[in-house]
Every structure is written in structure tokens, then in C-alpha cells.
Amino acid sequence: MTSTVSPPDVLARIVAHKQLEVAERRALVPPKKLEQSPYLASPTLSLAGYLRRPELSGIIAEFKRRSPSKGWINEFAPVERTTLGYMQAGASALSVLTDTEFFGGKNEDLTTARRFNLCPILRKDFVVDEYQLLEARSIGADAVLLIAAVLEPQQVRRLGEQAKALGLEVLLEVHDRAELERTLDVSLDAVDLVGVNNRDLRDFSVSFDRSLELVELLPAHLGRVAESGLRTAQDIQLLRRAGFEGFLIGETFMRHGRPEKACATLVQQLRDLEPAR
Ligand SMILES: O=C(O)c1ccccc1NCC(=O)[C@H](O)[C@H](O)COP(=O)(O)O
Question: What is the ipTM for the molecules in this complex?
């Protein structure tokens, strides 16, 4: 059973559910068990590093079955064909939504993507507890998302340091200047990339102005990612010219019956638009 929620309380609902879920999972699969995963012994790949590779598109292609704002987007796309196709199309990295209740994903989706792809994989979920970091590492993730809107700056710092100690990179997601400044003030060393979410998770409105206004404020040594609402090669060109290196795209691909073909089309349009890259 999955939930659809109205914008004003979506984040609060997701976080409340996530805290219960984490408590249940910890009881079911204790950290000692997660530590036995073979992935803990394998090195991780750098998402920030892959986004800076000039021969790649900068696209982080997302596997996203449903969302609170759109409901079901693509219930039946197979993980292996879709993610392998994304990478063959020229994506730089993958993002896999593992939340079940609100996004219809699962941990096994990420592990399946891991088995089929040698590229950085972002575990897209709502981290509220350190258990989820070990869990992310144990299922084969290379990077995790920390959302400033749901975490205190000190929590971002603590979780970020713990993630890095596990070998995971940290993508900090912000929506506005206040979130960016108060969080980076205390957690600059605990973060590898900053993502500006063009979708305001409080009302679901999407505007590239959020990315364009904040890009100047993002520290140059951190990876810079524009998230949500990207549809065209022109969108990517605009955001790349503004200073972004990474472009997180979910719905535009997943809306298609064959998401990997939509990704290939967009990458080709981007190559036509930016032949000198
Ligand atoms: O997508 C949503 O409706 C959503 C609602 C509440 C919290 C998070 C949500 N999405 C997660 C994401 O950040 C996006 O999946 C990601 O940025 C890709 O966005 P898009 O290309 O617009 O699918």
C-alpha cells in the first residue's frame, strides 16, 4: 500500500513514517547483520568525480516509480534494463529511490542497479538516522542524500561525517539561501556535493530560479547539482552555463514506456546542442 499526500505536510508525513520504518528495520536487520554485506568490503565510486568527467553528460538518471506530487509514473519499468540503458545512453550516474511508502521503491532496486552497473549510485531516500547510512552502504550505494529541510544543521554534520566514514559521498539538498547558509555553516567538511531542488517540497511548485539564484553561493570545491523539473537539453545547457555540473532527472525519463530511450534521446539532443563539450 502506498500513500499520496498533500503538499503542505508531505515532508512531515514522510519523516514520521521513516522514523517508524527505521525502528522496525533495525529490529529486523540489526547493524551487525548489515555489516556482513559484501558491499562493505568493496570501494565506492565518487559521484562528484564522475560529474566532473567532461566526456559524460552530467546527468544523474533516476529510477523513480511514483512520487507524492504525481502518483504512479511508471509502475512496471524493470530496474536492470532501465538503469543499464541509462548508463549506455551516456548518463554520468544513477539515482535510485528506495522509499516504498511514498515512491514505490525498495532497497532491492538499488542492489539490482548495483549488480548491472559500474557507476556511482545515489541512494535517494529520506535519511533521519545513522542506521540508514550503513544500510545504504550494505545495499551497494556510493552516495546518500541529506535534506536540509528535514535535518538540523548539526544532524547534517553528524550524519555526513558518519556517511563519509563509511566511504559514502554526501549530497546535501537545499531549497533556499537560508537552508544553504545555516547548514553549510556547520557541516561544510561533511558534505561532498550540494543539490538545489527546483521543487519546493512544501508546495510542489517547480522553478529553475531556485537553482539560478543559489548557484553563486555554492562553494566551488563541492559538486553542484540541479534537481527536479528538468525536461530538455536546453534546460541542462542553461543550468550548466550557470555553473552546475550535475542534473538529476527522474520523471522526464520514467514517464516513457522505455525510460532509457528517453534518456538516450535527451543525451543526443544535448550533444547536438553542445558539440564542443
Ligand atoms: O517528486 C516529488 O514529488 C517529491 C515530493 C516530495 C519529496 C521529494 C520528491 N521528489 C524527490 C526528488 O527530489 C526528485 O525525485 C528528483 O529531484 C527528480 O525530480 P524529477 O526529475 O522532477 O522527477
Answer: 0.97
Cβ burial, residue 29 (10 Å; 0-12/13-18/19+):
middle
Domain range spanning residue 250? Answer: 7-273
Chain centre distance of CA 240:
18
Protein residue closest via CA to atom 15 of ligand 1? 250
CATH of the domain at 136: 3.20.20.70
User: What amino acid positions are annotated as catalytic residues?
Assistant: 62, 64, 124, 173, 197, 227-228
How far is 45 from 60, CA to CA, in rounded Å? 14
Closest Cα to atom 6, ligand 1: which residue?
201
Closest atom of ligand 1 to 70 CA is 3
Residue 246 counted as domain residue: yes
Vertex 212 angle, CA 183 and 170, to 5°: 35
Site residues for ligand 1, CB cut-off 6 Å: 10, 62, 64, 67-69, 197, 201, 227-230, 248-252
Helix runs in the chain, H state only: 10-28, 31-34, 47-51, 79-89, 107-116, 131-138, 153-165, 177-187, 209-214, 233-242, 251-254, 259-273
Q: What pTM, to 2 d.p., does this model score?
A: 0.95
**Is 172 inside a domain boundary?**
yes
Q: How many domains does the chain have?
A: 1
Mutate to test the pocket of ligand 1, among 67, 70, 82, 122 (most ligand atoms within 8 A of CB): 67
The answer to whether position 113 is within a domain reads yes
Residue 1 lies in a domain: no
Read off the pLDDT of residues 186-241 as tens digits, 9 standing for 90 and up.
999 999 999 999 998 777 889 999 999 999 999 999 999 999 999 999 999 999 99
